[in-house]
Amino acid sequence: TQLLEQSPQFLSIQEGENLTVYCNSSSVFSSLQWYRQEPGEGPVLLVTVVTGGEVKKLKRLTFQFGDARKDSSLHITAAQPGDTGLYLCAGLSGNTPLVFGKGTRLSVIA
Amino acid sequence: EPEVTQTPSHQVTQMGQEVILRCVPISNHLYFYWYRQILGQKVEFLVSFYNNEISEKSEIFDDQFSVERPDGSNFTLKIRSTKLEDSAMYFCASSEAQRRGKLFFGSGTQLSVL
Lengths: 110, 114
Description:
The complex is a heterodimer.
Chain A: E1 5-7, E2 10-14, E3 19-24, E4 31-37, E5 44-49, E6 55-58, E7 61-65, E8 71-76, E9 85-93, E10 96-100, E11 104-109
Parallel strand pairs in A: 2-11
Antiparallel strand pairs in A: 1-3, 3-8, 4-5, 4-9, 6-7, 7-8, 9-10, 9-11
Chain B: E1 5-7, E2 10-13, E3 19-24, E4 31-37, E5 43-50, E6 53-57, E7 65-68, E8 75-79, E9 88-95, E10 104-105, E11 109-113
C-alpha cells in the first residue's frame, strides 16, 4: 500500500509569513498532484509535477518534486488569508489510482 | 467553467437503507470516479468507471456498492444496505484522461447513517 505522509498536519501563521508544507513517501510516484480543499467543497487541483527535481510556480506558490520522485513540497510566500484551506498531495504510480495524503490544514490570520 | 455537480449535498439515512448518490460529470469527460472522505481522514479512492464499466475498484468498494451510468449524463453510486461506517463525504470526479489528466471534483454529498 502506498502511503503519502503530509506534514505538518496543522499550521497557523500570520499574514505575510512564508511557509512550507511537505509530502513524503517511501514509494516512487510517476507524478504528484497538489490540491486545495475548502470546507464543504471538493478538492481543486493546483498543480501536477511529473519530473524528478521539477519546480513549478503558481503566483506565490512554489511546488517541488523530489529528485527521487518520492516527495514533494509546497512553499507559499507572503501568505494571505485567502490561502487558508486544506492542502492535499496525491500521487499516481503505475496502474494504481490516485492516492491522497491526509493533508495540511493551513490557517492564515490577518 | 464546466463543473461536476452532485446531488444531494446532504443525505441522512437509517442503517440498512439503500441510498443513491448522484453526479453529473463534465460533459466531454470519459473517466468517472467516486472517492470518499471520512471526517478527519484522507480522501480514499472507491471506484473508477470508463466505457460503461468499472475499470478499477478499491477494497472499500465491496458488494454493497454499485455504480451506474443510467443515461448520457448521470453517474450514480448506490449503497445497498448502509452501515454506520459508511458515513462520510462522497466525492464524484471526472477527467478527460485516466492517468495524468486533471481530476475535477464535485462539491460532495455528506452522507450520515444513523
